[in-house]
Write a structure and sequence with these properties.
By secondary structure, this protein is α/β, with parallel strands linked by helices. Helices cover about 25% and strands about 20% of the residues. The protein has one domain: Aldolase class I (TIM Barrel), CATH 3.20.20.70. The protein has a ten-stranded mixed beta sheet, with helices on one face. The longest helix has 13 residues. The protein is globular and about 50 Å long.
Length: about 260
């Protein structure tokens, strides 16, 4: 498996768990704002044998989970083999994906505990192409969502990174309608865009970080509405918090 980096312990990648994070190389999307953009370069990282990764996981006694992210993990030909072996050692396994490979998701589903799907934008092909920088097959993403939504034993999260230069309030409303129509019953997370060096300096002036107040304002109209899924905000003020508890945060207490 081609790996671009490993974090021995993280408390941010899987909610309420300590996890080892494995970054796979390569992605079929080309989002300009990707904070792991270096993973798109095929000459980064190195090949790991499955047993080498399992040895690292089993000897790491500080973690209860493993997060496989990227890049796009479903592009790795031996992802299924790694998932099977991680299940054997009893670690909670989370996979990040853009949802474009439903066939692979179906194969690995019996061996994973959680899937976090990055929904780049509303169900608008032109909008998605603008964000992902390629033509996106929305049908395949729908297939992935429908399948995962039927797997009651999998913790299913859909998240959208909010970038004011690419998305607006209307787009978030359309995402909510789309997920409601699909009967999505997991957690939806509106995620704050944060610049990192991996994005590239040339994009630092193009994509701006939305402030906490802006994100709360976007989510506020949905607070008292009934949805089949739970809504969360993830940002640098509240961390990871359900929409019902946002009003409990006083900004002066976070400074």
């Amino acid at each position: 498996m081609k790996i671009g980096g490993i974090i021995d312990i993280s408390t941010k990648d899987i909610p309420h768990k300590s996890a080892m994070v494995i970054f796979t190389v390569g992605c079929n999307f080309k989002c300009d704002f990707c904070h792991n953009k270096y993973l798109l370069q095929l000459n980064v990282g190195r090949e790991y044998e499955i047993n080498e990764l399992i040895d690292m996981i089993t000897t790491n006694l500080l973690v209860t989970g493993v997060s496989i992210t990227g890049g796009e993990p479903t592009l790795q030909k031996d992802l299924l083999d790694l998932c099977k072996e991680i299940q054997k050692v009893g670690k909670y396994l989370s996979i990040d994906t853009n949802g474009s490979n439903p066939d692979i998701i179906r194969k690995i589903a019996p061996y994973v505990n959680r899937v976090a799907l990055d929904l780049k934008g509303p169900p608008d092909p032109e909008k998605l192409e603008t964000i992902a920088r390629i033509k996106v097959d929305l049908g395949r993403i729908k297939d992935t969502i429908e399948f995962l939504n039927s797997q009651m034993e999998i913790d299913f999260e859909i998240r959208t990174t909010y970038i004011a230069d690419l998305l607006n309030n209307h787009d978030i409303k359309n995402i909510m309608r789309f997920l409601t129509k699909m009967g999505f019953s997991g957690n939806f997370v509106l995620q704050q865009y944060l610049f990192s060096e991996g994005v590239g300096e040339e994009f630092k002036r193009i994509f701006s970080k939305p402030e906490h107040e802006e994100l709360v304002k976007i989510l506020s109209p949905f607070k008292d509405l009934k949805f089949p899924f739970k809504i969360y905000l993830r940002d640098d003020i509240v961390g990871y918090r359900i929409i019902d508890k946002l009003n409990d945060v006083r900004l002066e207490d976070t400074k």
